[in-house]
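Obj: model holo form, ligand = tetrahydrodeoxyuridine.
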Amino acid sequence: MDFTKMIEEAIFARNNRTYTPYSNFKVGACVMMEDGSLYSGGNIENSSYGATNCAERTAIFKAISEGKKKIKAIAIVADQEDVFPCGICRQVIREFSDDAEIIIASSINKYEIYTINDLLPNSFTNKNMGVKKDV
Ligand code: THU
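Output (holo structure tokens):
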């Protein structure tokens, strides 16, 4: 798969769509949903630090709130190399994918590909709750 557009959008989000007055640590993400649509976003901080929303969740929640269901891939770009999604974001990615690809990018041409099962093995899902309907 060609991840160029996703990484470009993640870089744009990192540069233009974060709210990071506290850490100044800027992260951008771009998620591709199963129909090929792209949604991007940046991290949004809060004076009550725990209310901060990571870039990954901003992008994912935009997609889900527009009616999209499944994540195919997500690209993540920060100011430094090798920034991996936090534990909460891994759990959120897992909620909306069976095995999404996670693109850890430093530039258009420099990235590594993982899957959510690489990053969150033996995960807790709705299957563990006996949820029958396709949520
Ligand atoms: N952050 C993200 O947006 N994504 C990550 O993958 C790691 C951390 C944000 C949260 C906070 O605004 C800042 O980076 C420092 O933790």
